[in-house]
Amino acid sequence: MTRSFLKSALIPAALLASVPAILHAQAADPAPAAAQAGSYKVETSHTRVGFSVMHFGFSEWYGEFADVTGSLSIDPAKIENTKLAVSIPVATVSTTNATLDEELVSADWFDAEGYPTITFVSTKVTRTGERTADVTGNLTFHGVTKPVTLHASFNAGGVNPMSKAYTLGFNATGTITRSDFGVKNYVPAVGDEVTLRISAAFEKGE
Description:
Signal peptide: 1-27
InterPro entries: Lipid/polyisoprenoid-bd_YceI, TTHA0802/YceI-like_sf
Oligomer: single chain
Pfam family, one: YceI
Domain Lipid/polyisoprenoid-binding YceI-like: 39-203
Organism: Novosphingobium mangrovi (ex Hu et al. 2023)
């Protein structure tokens, strides 16, 4: 094997290894104050709403929803004026177990036919740190509306090098009590407290 062949093989590998760092540097500014104020929409393909519950006290059981849509109005200088509204299709629930997914969308559990969407509409936003805020709003799930607080953290803002759209990214966590929303099957053997883990991207409108 010649030295020239090794050189030509190694250079592309080195370039490929550096691509994630290059794209991140071009795309994202991690400083919340640098984020652009304005109106945004959920970037559906890179937004997920995850949930977990304890299963008979032995293990944590996970699932997620996809195809999330919604809007965000934000000004980093006036974070308390932020407005958020999202809609989640119940039928997109996925646990990697097809049989269980069919059970969850049935009338015995989430009842996707009777209550096809989960919605969250913010009512109050409170800054809790340089990059964090509590977002309180009304969560409507399974035909019941209850106040819920999400603990949000800012990831970054910048031009997505793939879509060319200015994008903001956030993570958020929270908890709900599923029996409060009328989903009571197997409580307490299967946990009543549900942990939410959300990863969301928002694209700025033109």
